[in-house]
Amino acid sequence: MAAAMQRVLALSGGVGGAKLALGLTHESSAGALHVLVNCADDFEHLGLHISPDIDTLLYTLAGLSDPQQGWGVGGETFNALEALGRLGGETWFRLGDKDLATHLWRSVELGRGQTLSQVTAELAARLGITAHIHPMSDDPVRTRVHSSLGELPFQHYFVREACSPQVTGFDFDGIEAASANHEVMAMLAADAFSVIVICPSNPFVSIDPILQLPGMWQALASCSAPVVLVSPIVGGIAIKGPAAKMMSELGMPVTAQGVAGHYQRHYPGLVDHFVIDTSDGTLAADIERLELDVGVTATVMTTLQDKRRLARYVLDLVNS
Amino acid sequence: MAAAMQRVLALSGGVGGAKLALGLTHESSAGALHVLVNCADDFEHLGLHISPDIDTLLYTLAGLSDPQQGWGVGGETFNALEALGRLGGETWFRLGDKDLATHLWRSVELGRGQTLSQVTAELAARLGITAHIHPMSDDPVRTRVHSSLGELPFQHYFVREACSPQVTGFDFDGIEAASANHEVMAMLAADAFSVIVICPSNPFVSIDPILQLPGMWQALASCSAPVVLVSPIVGGIAIKGPAAKMMSELGMPVTAQGVAGHYQRHYPGLVDHFVIDTSDGTLAADIERLELDVGVTATVMTTLQDKRRLARYVLDLVNS
């Protein structure tokens, strides 16, 4: 009798999470990886529904992503955006021509009454992706950044203002009324996963919106699968994005320990294993005092080999 | 005291009409040309509002059009469309990347509650066009082609089926409830034009929808400006598009005379002067029996010089 499929659930934001998801898809059997993706960055722009984190997952897992920047499509052109600029249209959000096709396709399908889950599953299938990519919710949840410039919609903070305003907090508009992804919730209730991985994504704007969906973190904490968190902070910096800057502005220590503290404070007992980078090895003892099992390994993912090695490490940590 | 501005009103469809409109804008003073454009070809596609004839006018008058095909933007790329094709999306309507910007911009502005007239005027201004481009109506009017394949929306007949079905007739869905362009109707009521030119556009699917708007052809016929019709049929063929094929399928003689008969039958007394090509000069006497003043000149417009020469001829015909 064949062993039951070792199903993996990964929680992910954009670039950093997609890297580990790519490693996990290579290190698990076909169809075994489920990725639950942040959609609180989604926004309506030029009449299109744009899902930046889902698209980063799609392009990364389909082998289409731009290898330099980690988001967008490789070999992209910007002819539509340049023409729009000549008309005086909005060009602060860098929509490539190939990327536009995804937004057009998604917007048409949503307009036909498909859910974001259905549209995402169909896109993944059409791009030949075997992993299951689940939006965190089919309902609109939108991150608002409380900042020195006032309250900003996430993409205005992130792209238009290039993360320069100082942040004081976040909220997720619509989250109380939103239903967490039905398929993932049903699988959690059925104890269908062998391991749950929180990818090295931004705790505040990528993972918090997922965990704070009604019932979500409690469902993750109460299923029997161990939860492994991979630190997005390495040697006091974020490999990608504004996580370190945000921690500093929020008065938190900009360390893996600061990350661990955030999760233990807001989601007590959720995380079982915390994976930190070798360069932060001296913090292990202090972090273990937060009642977390700490794993120390190389977490910076540059090559596909790095991604697969970290994925293998995470999966073995749980099996050992 | 300066002479009053000689205002010109041109009725136009796409490519053929835009050629003469370009000539007319060169041969009249800045701001003197008003073009009333067919919008019964407009359609919603991929969630975008597409106005093919307006766009051909915009691109032609802005000097952006593709010089080979006469529609679309020169130096166009199709990266969005190719990516959409890889997703299994609809690609039969050849949307270029630069062209997409126009549709995105228009769709956003219409979504904000602007009228098609306002959006078109703004687009023309942003493209540096001094002529006034007026959509025939702000209300939706949609050509349906009655054909051997049944009733087809215009773009399905024209682009997807490449005009191959045999036509038996046309109707213009929504036309009874549509209001003709308010600004043009007000100018006609104020007798503001010195001349009205019906460009060498398709009589059935470009000019008929304009003329059949409630009150439109009567307003054109009753103002004091002479109406000049330029034949779209030269030597038994249409220079561009399916006009000749349609005439043949409808059982009409495929000649300039057939065109004249169509206008005299449906809009008696509307046309004062009928301009035919030199190659059709032998038809002049027969056409004059339809109580039309016939002008004979070279009407095929290849170069800018051809366009200006024909425009000059039309304007002089009226002044003489």
Task: Give a topology summary.
2 copies of one chain form a homodimer.
Chain A: E1 8-12, H1 15-27, E2 33-37, E3 43-45, E4 48-50, H2 52-61, H3 79-86, H4 97-111, H5 116-126, E5 132-135, E6 142-147, E7 150-153, H6 154-160, E8 167-173, H7 182-189, E9 195-198, H8 203-211, H9 216-222, E10 227-230, E11 233-234, E12 237-238, H10 243-249, H11 256-266, E13 273-277, H12 284-288, E14 293-297, H13 304-319
Parallel strand pairs in A: 1-2, 1-9, 2-5, 9-10, 10-13, 13-14
Antiparallel strand pairs in A: 3-4, 6-7, 6-8, 11-12
Helix pairs in contact in A: 1-2, 1-13, 4-5
Task: Write structural notes for this entry.
2 copies of one chain form a homodimer. The first copy, chain A, contains 13 helices and 14 strands. By secondary structure, the first copy, chain A, is an alpha/beta fold. In chain A, strands 5-2-1-9-10-13-14 form a 7-stranded parallel β-sheet, sandwiched between helices. Chain A has a 3-stranded antiparallel β-sheet with strand order 7-6-8. In chain A, strands 3-4 form a two-stranded antiparallel ribbon. In chain A, a hairpin with a 2-residue loop joins strand 3 and strand 4. In chain A, helix 1 runs parallel beside helix 2 and helix 1 packs across helix 13. The longest helix of chain A is centred in the last third of the chain and has 16 residues. The two termini of chain A are 23 Å apart. The interface between A and B is medium-sized, with 30 and 30 residues.
